[in-house]
Putative invertase inhibitor
Amino acid sequence: MNSSVLLLCLFSFLLLSSLPFSLCEETTSQTTTPLDHLCNNLGGFYVTPDYCFTAFAADSRSRTADYNFLALISLNLTISNATDVRSNINSLLTSTTFSSTTPSSEPVRKGLQTCLKLYDDVISSLRWSAQSVSAGRYDGAKPVVEQAVGVPASCDAMPGLQLSKKNDGFSRIALLSEAVVSYLAN
Ligand SMILES: *[C@@H]1O[C@H](CO)[C@@H](O)[C@H](O)[C@H]1NC(C)=O
Ligand SMILES: *[C@@H]1O[C@H](CO)[C@@H](O)[C@H](O)[C@H]1NC(C)=O
């Protein structure tokens, strides 16, 4: 918009005239994508616009996606994150520290195994949620995704587990999925 159009707009507002308002609107309003709308409205679910945009930027299709596809993208990002955490736990378990059972490492090994199982379960339940969501059933997916958010806390509660960093990453992306699914279920 050049400055003379801007001036004209301003002038027409000031005079409350019916001058070319449509011209002004066209040039001042920006198109709000579903991504913009979603990311700016998840505050009630403890997800900041900043984190939301950053997380969705991992999949370039987000920019043009509709709401349903955004939910699927967030679920898939959550699933790949869980898969990543899971393989980290697995390599910890197969590392020399835990492959041979010594009395001192036993509680930690048990904890890791439990944690591995939790992530196994969460991956399959998130896949199920994604199917639900792709069929438009947000209400069914909601409790399942809510449960996923709690998995890292359960893992952190195991004795001697030092997974916090990765765990936290999963928490945040799971919280995003929960927020998106809850927002769309409403
Ligand atoms: C999500 O992942 C599944 C399984 O890998 C894939 O079939 C589907 O196309 C993915 N959807 C999106 C939106 O990324
Ligand atoms: C998991 O999520 C965290 C936080 O959003 C991110 O830093 C990390 O790169 C993600 N990992 C994968 C494999 O997506």
